[in-house]
């Protein structure tokens, strides 16, 4: 959206009022009426169109603003399509079921909270969805914790922490792909850069849950054993199913561009699947588009494995297109530029830029309750400021994840907060103090911003490349 030229110059107060009306429309619709975010965004587009007409802006300019904003998301759309394909291919190759099956071997009565965190972290990375992880593995762990008489708040906190660690660091995650694509940073460059804040947060979190560990107790592992047995019944658990993971790590190490890396891995995974399934072309194409459907009869397993496909990404793709159209129109009408011009006079440094971007992402999560919008709106709003400060875009994409993705489950009225409370049976306010990873991540990214640790500047990298 940096290339979108504004056609109107509103006063600061006017710009703030219009933006507040848009945010109020979205937040009230999502929080009060439990609407999917698409509809309030469409309503906001209509509001901005009316505002534009009142300010004598031509319809052609309004249309150009929306189209210009949406065009910036074409890279993300392509990535999401390939992510849908990859999830399906990892399911039929047995990669996800195999990793889950052997991961459950580590469950022990000792250090239960730490193990719950590690298991959900692994699941989150492999599945690429925090909510799916919480609704499947998380529910099983809640049952085990309850049978042991352990704290449900701490157990839920460990589950939420692990699920969102996995979601944040997974190349299959829509939020990870969204954060990297919105600021035009290669996916794997983004993930590697996030390691600087995520690994310390991970270590702090695991230490905290080790300290909370219940020690040695009798435990009924029947729920977990049933889940493991269900995974084995799929016929998808094989040693060679790990090959796609090794292949993905290899292409990441070779710095292969994200889209090509995903395409290669899809091909490898489909090839692996043919070792244990005889797919006909029609069935294979159907699975790649509509997703894999598990039919083991074990509800938790079927819920975990019935997913993927291009079709599963359409919700996110349509939301990205609408949100970017909204951002494009906000830029075209001069709303965002008017506010950023004043903000830039106040922040005026790289440290304050990172702090303000982080607080903005957190604020949108609190006001709107939607993590996608916190990433999209903050990313679009601060690209110019980070460029002005000569900050590499990967600093912004990391901030979006550290203060956007992982903060959403801490907000009781947010999409993630409501969902997690429902499936885990623990209120957001109860598990919030123990969602250690989600609390520590934004604090670390703000700390790095103030100290300058791991903060990359474009000019220095250009000079280094030249030398």
What are the defining features of this structure?
mainly alpha; 467 residues; globular; disordered C terminus; 24 helices
Explain this structure to me?
The chain has 24 helices and no strands. It is mostly helical and 467 residues long. It starts with 11 loop residues before the first helix and ends with a helix. The model is unreliable at 460-467 (pLDDT under 50). The protein has helices at 12-31, 38-54, 59-71, 74-92, 95-103, 112-127, 130-148, 152-169, 174-182, 187-211, 222-233, 243-253, 258-273, 281-290, 299-305, 314-332, 335-347, 350-368, 371-388, 393-405, 415-424, 428-431, 436-451, 458-466. The chain has a domain at 75-313. It is globular and about 65 Å long.
Summarize the SSE layout with pairings.
Layout: H1 12-31, H2 38-54, H3 59-71, H4 74-92, H5 95-103, H6 112-127, H7 130-148, H8 152-169, H9 174-182, H10 187-211, H11 222-233, H12 243-253, H13 258-273, H14 281-290, H15 299-305, H16 314-332, H17 335-347, H18 350-368, H19 371-388, H20 393-405, H21 415-424, H22 428-431, H23 436-451, H24 458-466
Helix pairs in contact: 1-2, 1-17, 2-16, 3-16, 4-9, 4-13, 4-16, 5-6, 5-11, 6-7, 6-8, 6-10, 7-8, 7-11, 7-15, 7-21, 8-10, 9-19, 9-20, 10-20, 10-23, 12-13, 16-19, 18-19, 18-20, 18-23, 19-20, 20-23
- The counted number of beta strands is 0
Residue-averaged pLDDT = 85
Tally of contiguous helical segments: 24
- The SS-based structural class is mainly alpha
Q: What is the N-to-C order of secondary-structure elements (H for helix, E for strand)?
A: HHHHHHHHHHHHHHHHHHHHHHHH
Strand-residue fraction? under 5%
Low-confidence segments, given as residue ranges, are 460-467
User: What is the overall silhouette?
Assistant: globular
Helix content: over 70%
Terminal CA distance reads: 32 Å
Biggest β-sheet strands, sense, barrel: none
| Gyration radius, rounded | 22 Å
